[in-house]
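check this one:
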Amino acid sequence: MLDLERIRSLVTGRRPGYSLPQALYNSPDVLAFDLEAIFGQSWILVGFTCEIPRPRGYLATTVGQSPVVVTRDRDGTYRAFHNSCRHRGAQVCADGAGARGRLTCPYHQWVYDLDGTLVHARHMPESFDPAEHGLRPVHVQNVAGALFVCLAQTPPSFARFREELEPLLAPHRLEEAKLAFQNTLVEKGNWKLVMENARECYHCGVGHPELCLTFPIEDASGGHFAAEGDPRHDAFAARIAAAGLARGPFIGPWWQVERFPLNEGQLSLTIDGALACKKLMVAGEEADIGSLRWAIEPHSFCHSTADTTVYFSAMPTATNETLVTCKWLVHQDAVEGVDYDIEHLTQLWNVTNIQDRDLVENNQRGVNSVGYLPGPYSESDESYVLRFIDWYCDKALDHIAARTGVDGRPIALREALAGAGAEAPAFVAGAGKEAGESRAEHA
């Protein structure tokens, strides 16, 4: 059983503006809590509709320790279910995508329709009612070709996120994309350290020399990407407007959406800044549209350029182990070897992810030390890390309050929550600044 009072004490004991107490990074009990309170109560970006390109298909993945399957029914409707057989709990579909009219459990061959209905169970008594043993549904949302699921009985509100993301993402035509490549990387670090690293570029100048060639680590004014009044920013804004695209930024309780320019002369997030794919994802011929960065807590960020979308996901698999998944999407009509080359498409992010793995594993070793003490974040260079950690603390305290019926926050935090409104982070002390006030983060 989770010791919720201990976890509440750890979270409320965190000094505002500082990293977390050690146990929140390396305690098995905290991992179990995170799977329940964070990954079990948040919207998770599990993939894309192009991974189920036709009706009668599915996409299976694992959220924390919970297998989930998204199906596309005969009429094209997307549904999601716990990927756990209602007989004895075996995982029905192996992780990955497939084309199948029905889902058959490999253990005892119970068969489910794509709407979750149990249609066949061998040798069961007459009293057995198949209608009571369908797959358990999971909340699912499709936003311009991106598939989100939530395991919670009552998920966080989705309407404002859709309203802000969809107009910016739709021009990238993910519904007309295909999965060109994907890979995974195991990082020996707690998932929160992986995401802290992914939410800042304080380390990028030294840690990612290849990324610095294309990604705007720090513009001439020292601001985030490019500041209003900067001639380069104004030229980018005019170019984006002429292309019929929106820029944002939109900052929500658990998301950030913003289109920004790449470094001068760079068209895509590749090792040389050249386009990764000749067949553009956006309509028209304008390729110099920067990158649309869309990121959600607790686990993901994406970059959508004119030619491709790159997806990053960090999923905890153990206390000090995280599975990082990277996917590259290109236009469905693009031909490998003609319009794009896998090595060129993937090289920059493969190099960056390996560098980040090494940084995270080194970070975890230091955090595990008896000499570790939480340290202060840079409000300019680590503002999105502050937002992430403040969000984590607030989400954790919300869940503990829901479980115990007692809001154990200090009085000042409860008053801040009451005055902040339902859509604002409650744990406000030391919260990160808006995107326009911070420096660039590479994720």
Observations:
- The chain has two domains: 1-41+164-443, 44-155.
- Confidence is low (pLDDT under 50) at residues 219-224, 421-441.
- The chain is about 25% helix and 25% strand.
- The longest strand covers residues 177-187.
